[in-house]
Amino acid sequence: xxxxxxxxxxxxxxxxxxxxxxxxxxxxxxxxxxxxxxxxxxxxxxxxxxxxxxxxxxxxxxxxxxxxxxxxxxxxxxxxxxxxxxxxxxxxxxxxxxxxxxxxxxxxxxxxxxxxxxxxxxxxxxxxxxxxxxxxxx
Length: 138
Description:
Layout: E1 3-5, E2 8-12, H1 19-35, E3 40-42, H2 45-49, H3 53-61, E4 64-68, H4 74-81, E5 86-91, H5 92-98, H6 112-133, E6 134-136
Parallel strand pairs: 2-3, 2-4, 4-5
Antiparallel strand pairs: 1-6
Helix pairs in contact: 1-6
């Protein structure tokens, strides 16, 4: 079988007004801009929900991970409600639990500690991106 490189679509929750939602978004930006710019992309979750043609095609052709800010898992559930096969799902609270010395603050914008935690979370997710970006062609 031949290996084919794919983009991994990272869908964060909206989490407006919630620190862990802001952490989900910032972690996503770290992933697609700094950690894996050649293999990770993101799109607006709302575009998927309103069935935007380009967005539907993107998530159909590539593996998808979701990053949620809370246990309600709105990003994962929204993606799955649109028929998306979510390859992996994460909650930002788990990154905080693993790094309790880094309590993020801020709502629309994270404080310095929150940005550092987002960078660490993105670094930890790099191996997931690497694994999902290489798919075997059937």
